[in-house]
Amino acid sequence: MIDVLVVGGGNAALCAALMAREAGASVLLLEASPREWRGGNSQHTRNLRCMHEAPQDVLVDAYPEEEYWQDLLKVTGGLTDERLARIAIRASSCCRDWMRTHGVHFQPPLSGALHVARTNAFFMGGGKALVNAYFRSAEKLGVQIRYDTPVVSVELDGDRFVAVLTAGGERIEARSCVLAAGGFESNREWLSEAWGVNERGERPAENFLIRGTRFNEGVLLKALIDAGADSIGDPTQAHMVAIDARAPLYDGGICTRIDCVSLGVVVNREAKRFYDEGEDFWPKRYAIWGRLVAQQPGQIGYSIIDRKAIGRFMPPVFPGTVADSLPELARKLGLPEAAFVETINAYNAACRGGTFDHTALDDCHTEGLAPAKTHWARPIDTPPFYGYPLRPGVTFTYLGLRVNEESAVHFGGRPSPNLFVAGEMMAGNVLGKGYTAGVGMAIGTAFGRIAGTQAAKAAKAAKAVKAVKEEQHALA
């Protein structure tokens, strides 16, 4: 019998598998996807948010625990378990050396990744390189890996894990188990059920795009909740960003994100602005824009900039719609021309000049305009003008399983002795809402490593108990 069974193939699952194997356990990892699509959403990531008290290799200055916590507290609005959040924060300060031993390399921030040189460590080659490195290391250490093996249910004896059942009908037993199979973001039926019908009679989720893997359908999450596992989080809350409306339904990844929002204005299909584009630095606010667009008519918006903004943001994969005048841009985007020109003219008139500096919270703002733009407000008056259509892009959902410091799944408030969970399936303990760049990887890495360690301990304890029973039976 296998000591530790890991279900999933992303960052959290791989961290769990590696830690369990390093602890001496035999490990089997089941990945639902084919080998070429392995890695879950982690293959689309770029960086890890890291606490550090002083400059460290690719990280400049300092990013102390309390500042990290305050950043997380701000984006979640207090919907976070401080005890678990601080575990992830502290773990982020000392995990990189371990990551390097498994083949992960880091690099300085990319030139288009503003404001994160101090807070985030970037993976050389991105998330795909990271998961490939982990898979290589796992194979070298003797972790058994099986692809194309979706798990559809978990067999329990009360709160104790017994076995899993695969989609192919195979029953696999293990002494302990780590679940790290992702959220339900690619289950469009579940998303639609969660979001329901809005006041305009629309089903918003029908217009959502999925930034990540198509394999995260939440099958195990639902199975565990149905089996009595304690859940946490709102099913409508997610890491949801504004991405190019022309992106593919699945696996668009980082390159479909539109990063020029704070440099211009965003309007809905009625050509009206609806939120402060300059509220804070982009890495702290990019993840609110998907939900904002989801609340607009038709779940669509348009990011509008002029020539002055070009070169100041990471260019998206699709080119913007270009026009030499505002009326022409409105027509090309299919927006009401008069309303669009009126919105831009009102914004331009409200801009109060200062010293524009997109690397700081500058003094360029609007006056007498609702909603205000509090930073980086410059008139959109220099042709050519550019427009990018926006749709909500779901990265991962926050509904998950409740855990403790040992990442154990809870049933009726009691932790399971041998069933653990990591990654998206428990991130809602820390992320009740909101997001800040790189924190998902911090949570997955911290609790993946914890879950793997605890699963190995549980397996060792189970073997010890079995040995004692066998000895007692022999003596009898």
TrEMBL record:
The gene is tcuA. It holds the Pfam family FAD_binding_2. Gene3D superfamilies: FAD/NAD(P)-binding domain, Succinate dehydrogenase/fumarate reductase flavoprotein, catalytic domain. It comes from Variovorax ureilyticus. Its cofactor is FAD. This is FAD-dependent tricarballylate dehydrogenase TcuA. Residues 3-430 form the FAD-dependent oxidoreductase 2 FAD-binding domain. The keyword Metal-binding does not apply. Keywords: FAD, Flavoprotein, Oxidoreductase.
